[in-house]
């Protein structure tokens, strides 16, 4: 999802099945229902961007067991996603509840945390939490916000773009990402081209990968991408997105149904322009299921995290040629349920087992690994910034922790 100097990066999955919207009752609903008919016309006057607010300085850290340090977040921020522009940590999320909720985007620099000004344009944009985020080395930002609302409390997606100087919502019709045919959104990319990757119902029995690209502020969907096409008993679903700067890489799974049963296989796809795609096989064992759940990219390669059988697994995806399996130490995970996470900055790779596990391993060369259990389980994101490893677990008492020695030899 983001890039870092030297070679290997990150993203996340939001698999939210959406059903038909039958009625809307909230104020945000009424405002955004008007937006469906006229997506170019803001329904609210956008407030003036909030001034940058400094939070706790990086030196204000509390030491935790196992060599970790707690990273204090400013105010009421609830972090949802962490990434990097290659030099700084960038955290997206929200703050407040109910009518007081608001999206937040934070950058952690040498002087502490600063807010990136956000300009919402719709009722749901004003109360969204930023849950998918990509930032390129030049500071370009693509993000997705999510809020619940309406009579059925359905997820309402909002699209955001800009730079780390200011990010604005670009109003979309409700069924751009949601509605009765929506599957889920796997992630976003900001370079080499802005993209959203997810899934969409294409028939009464088929959920297919979907690719959105931006055109004049409108996000347009395609479901006819050849590399994702159903191949008779094979259904592909993406789970994470990241970019090297030259190409976008998508990680996911293919569910293969045969007369003798069903299994799942880890796969990846890469593209430079959202037009020509290449499919890469990751899990090769024909009788053992596997899955790809996250990836992180640098300028010339990505690392995909996942599982094979009941073990944590990872693969390196370069700019050309087949994927190469890495050999992390044996870490037990639960097949199909596990959500391993990855971080990569060109000189270090870190893998977290995710879910209920505290297991995390890291390596400077992909050969020699060290284990460093995290203080909290349910890890949802990893990011490496200037050799410092950040681990996000939003539901923990200490949602953001870090250490400097993850890949120190």
Automatic annotation (TrEMBL):
Domain of life: Bacteria
Regions of compositional bias (Low complexity) in chain numbering: 39-60
Stretches the record annotates as Disordered: 39-63
Residues spanning the signal sequence: 1-27
Keyword terms, alphabetized: Signal
Name this protein carries in UniProt: Uncharacterized protein
Species for this entry: Mumia zhuanghuii
């Amino acid at each position: 999802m983001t890039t870092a100097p030297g070679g290997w990066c990150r993203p996340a999955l939001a698999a939210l099945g959406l059903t038909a919207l039958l009625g809307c009752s909230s104020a945000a609903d009424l405002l955004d229902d008007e937006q469906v008919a006229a997506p170019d016309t803001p329904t609210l006057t956008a407030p003036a961007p909030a001034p940058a607010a400094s939070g706790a300085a990086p030196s204000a850290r509390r030491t935790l067991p196992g060599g970790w340090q707690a990273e204090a977040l400013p105010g009421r921020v609830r972090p949802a996603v962490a990434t990097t522009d290659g030099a700084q940590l960038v955290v997206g999320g929200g703050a407040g509840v109910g009518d007081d909720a608001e999206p937040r985007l934070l950058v952690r620099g040498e002087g502490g945390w600063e807010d990136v000004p956000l300009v919402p344009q719709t009722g749901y944009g004003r109360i969204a939490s930023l849950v998918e985020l990509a930032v390129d080395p030049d500071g370009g930002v693509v993000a997705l916000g999510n809020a619940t609302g309406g009579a059925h409390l359905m997820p309402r997606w909002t699209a955001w773009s800009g730079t780390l100087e200011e990010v604005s919502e670009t109003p979309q019709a409700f069924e751009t990402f949601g509605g009765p045919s929506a599957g889920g959104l796997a992630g976003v990319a900001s370079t080499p081209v802005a993209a959203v990757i997810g899934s969409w119902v294409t028939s009464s029995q088929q959920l297919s990968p979907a690719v959105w690209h931006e055109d004049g502020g409108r996000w347009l969907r395609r479901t006819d991408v050849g590399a994702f096409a159903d191949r008779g008993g094979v259904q592909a679903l993406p789970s994470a997105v990241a970019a090297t700067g030259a190409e976008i890489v998508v990680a996911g799974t293919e569910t293969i149904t045969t007369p003798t049963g069903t299994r799942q296989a880890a796969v990846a796809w890469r593209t430079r322009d959202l037009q020509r795609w290449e499919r890469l096989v990751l899990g090769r064992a024909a009788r053992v299921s596997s899955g790809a759940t996250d990836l992180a990219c640098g300028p010339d390669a990505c690392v995909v995290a996942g599982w094979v059988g009941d073990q944590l697994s990872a693969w390196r995806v370069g700019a050309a040629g087949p994927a190469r399996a890495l050999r992390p130490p044996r870490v037990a995970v639960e097949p199909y349920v596990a959500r391993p996470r990855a971080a990569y900055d060109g000189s270090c790779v870190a893998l977290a087992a995710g879910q209920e596990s505290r297991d995390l391993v890291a390596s400077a060369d992909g050969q020699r690994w060290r284990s460093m259990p995290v203080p909290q389980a349910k890890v949802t994101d990893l990011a490496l910034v200037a050799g410092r490893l950040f681990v996000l677990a939003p539901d923990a008492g200490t949602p953001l922790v870090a250490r400097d020695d993850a890949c120190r030899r």
